[in-house]
Specification:
Immunoglobulin-like, 5 domains, 5 helices, 44 strands
């Protein structure tokens, strides 16, 4: 009896143990790790304390409530007055540590602007716009100025550019002295310079290439304000709203604050018309073609003087200008020359010296033909005597626009090309009739030519070139070509007229595509700009105040106190529809300076700093799904 009782008890105990174990396995789940961290680090304490006066140390330690990291401190942490010797900026657990290497100036307020570089170590929540200040004297300077920096030519926000103040109001201060206070623009081109002492200042922007806090390199991008600013402040109030939930307002509070002025400084960044002249790497992409490339356009074409070879005569090459005279191609006409793998030539060309004055520079240049082109093997039945054909490209399409021009581009220089080898016929009823046209060389490409004719809506044309009528300098002949095309009909186009308000000088408007590239240009006449025969599409508009009337945007020059020409963007998209006449009105001063350019064509778009909110609902479902999926699994 006792044995049976013990045996039954053991079986019951084993059964209960098995049930408990199965239940435990069914409820296994990955730990959630607690609440999701969506808050940035919080300031706890510091040495020295914020806004401490008479501080003589050179080390600052700031403690936060959690582990932190500093993103690219050499770029994102701005210390002012500017430090000539780079400070040490690092993290130590929950601390941000800054060690200043320069000797501290007496009676000066120092600002350490961390911008948006501090974030927590795990979720990367950013402590936005955090700055810290202390003074080596008896007072802390507290004035601030703010504004926006945009590219002068295209109104792009310019991030990461230094903004500086000078209390020395002489024009030479910008080029001889470092700034007294600095800041840096954020991803929207916005800036705030903090802890300024009372006084008068000039404001500048500087893409400081050599980090000396002054404009002493001609290639540096700059901006300057024509007027002197006087930092000040006023007491103001604003309304803060407290919400019970996403739909219900709890309380509206009126909160007082200090409004620092000016807070709307507008700076337009530009680079002066400057460019050192020098030669880039020579090229020999094919055996009969030598190329010299330069960083900017040449006024004169350099001559080639043979060094290790002797051509048959002085006309051993032909010159082709390309890429706006920044590239010069030399087509070799002497076979005994271009069949050599290595050619040395002497070249004399203009080059900028150390003070940016053009001087004649003579170099010996080596051209190598490392890989000669492979000769294609003839297939059985091919005519071994068939010479290679002269390559040409003609931009004909089945449907051409009213303002299109036919371009003809050859692969290599041609000999004595005449207009008469081209036949342009117009279709009248069912017959083709020859018509007149203009045949002109492309001034930007010696291998290119244009066929021009005033097309009319709906016309049909045919262009033909007989075979073996055009010869290259290497003896190649062209193949037969024929192509038909139609000019688009009137009802396939749209028309746009823009009424311009606020223009009192010479100006022009450029229509832009979705890549911010100009597709058409028109002068402002009688208060408006007219664009006829547009392809139906979405457009944007940019206006340039063309003060000197030269039809192009001109940059500025600091030494002459010349600002770059003003540019305005139409804030709205312009929709041109087929067979429609669209009229728009644009007041160029209606939209603020930094809100004119549509975001769709802005390349330097603002970055999202705030971390996306956690999707608790979906995470809960996912967790439940995972748990239920494990319920039947063995443990």
């Amino acid at each position: 009896m006792n044995d049976k009782y013990i045996r039954n008890s053991l079986q019951l105990f084993a059964g209960l143990f098995l049930l408990v174990a199965i239940y435990s396995c069914a409820n296994m789940a990955t730990p959630t790790g607690g609440p999701y961290d969506e808050n940035p680090p919080k300031f706890i304490s510091s040495t020295p304390v914020p806004n401490q006066t008479n501080y003589k140390g050179k080390k600052v330690e700031i403690l936060f409530d959690e582990l932190i990291q500093i993103d690219k401190p050499s770029e994102n942490v701005i210390i002012t007055p500017p430090q000539m010797e780079l400070p040490i900026v690092r993290t130590a657990g929950r601390k941000a540590v800054v060690e200043l290497m320069d000797t501290l100036k007496p009676n000066t307020t120092y600002t350490i602007d961390f911008t948006n570089s501090i974030s927590d170590n795990n979720e990367k929540n950013v402590f936005e716009n955090f700055s810290f200040a202390f003074s080596t004297g008896d007072i802390i300077d507290t004035l601030e100025v703010a504004g926006t920096l945009l590219n002068a030519e295209n109104l792009e926000p310019m991030p990461g550019i230094m903004i500086g103040l000078h209390d020395n109001l002489e024009d030479s201060a910008f080029v001889k002295l470092p700034f007294v206070r600095t800041s840096r623009t954020n991803d929207k081109g916005q800036f705030t310079i903090r802890n300024i002492s009372p006084g008068k200042y000039h404001v500048f922007a500087l893409n400081d290439v050599n980090r000396d806090y002054k404009f002493d390199q001609p290639g540096e991008d700059i901006a300057f304000l024509d007027s002197v600013i006087v930092p000040t402040f006023e007491f103001a109030s604003r309304q803060d709203t407290i919400w019970k939930d996403s739909l219900t307002i709890d309380t509206i509070l009126t909160v007082g604050y200090t409004h620092f002025l000016p807070d709307n400084i507008e700076l337009r960044l530009f680079k002066e018309k400057f460019g050192r002249q020098y030669m880039l790497k020579p090229e020999r992409t094919q055996e009969n073609k030598l190329s010299l490339r330069f960083n900017s356009a040449l006024d004169t074409i350099p001559a080639l003087v043979p060094v290790n070879f002797a051509p048959a005569d002085s006309s051993w090459y032909l010159v082709q200008e390309a890429d706006g005279k920044t590239a010069i191609h030399y087509w070799l006409t002497d076979p005994l020359v271009w069949q050599q793998d290595t050619l040395f030539v002497s070249v004399t060309y203009p080059k900028s010296d150390s003070v940016n004055v053009l001087q004649a520079q003579t170099d010996t240049v080596q051209f190598l033909m490392r890989h000669r082109p492979d000769k294609k093997k003839k297939k059985k039945g091919d005519d071994a005597d068939t010479p290679p054909l002269l390559g040409l490209n003609i931009n004909l399409q089945g449907s051409m626009n009213l303002f299109d021009t036919i371009s003809v581009v050859f692969d290599e220089p041609v000999v004595d090309l005449k207009k008469e080898v081209f036949f342009l016929d117009q279709k009248v009823d069912t017959l083709w009739k020859p018509v007149e046209f203009d045949f002109v060389p492309d001034t930007t490409n010696a291998l290119g030519f244009f066929i021009n004719r005033p097309w009319k809506y709906g016309e049909e044309y045919r262009l033909e070139i007989d075979s073996a009528t055009i010869q290259s300098i290497y003896g190649k002949w062209n193949d037969f070509f024929t192509g038909e095309f139609k000019i688009k009909k009137k009802d396939e186009y749209g028309h746009l007229y823009i009424n311009i308000i606020g223009v009192d000088t010479t100006a022009y408007v450029e229509l832009l595509n979705g890549n911010d590239q100009p597709v058409r240009k028109a002068k402002v006449k009688d208060g408006g700009a007219l664009f006829m025969d547009l392809k139906p599409d979405k457009y944007y508009a940019r206006l340039v105040l063309d003060v000197n009337g030269n039809g192009k945007w001109d940059t500025g020059k600091y030494s002459d106190k010349q600002q770059p020409e003003m540019v305005f963007y139409c804030p709205k998209q312009l929709n041109v529809m087929q067979n429609w006449e669209v009229e728009e009105t644009w007041d160029i001063h209606a939209a603020p300076f930094n809100r004119q350019k549509p975001l769709d064509i802005t390349k330097n778009k603002p970055k999202e700093l705030t971390k996306k909110k956690r999707d608790y609902k979906n995470e809960g479902r996912q967790s439940s799904s995972q748990n239920s999926g494990r319920a039947g699994m063995p443990f």
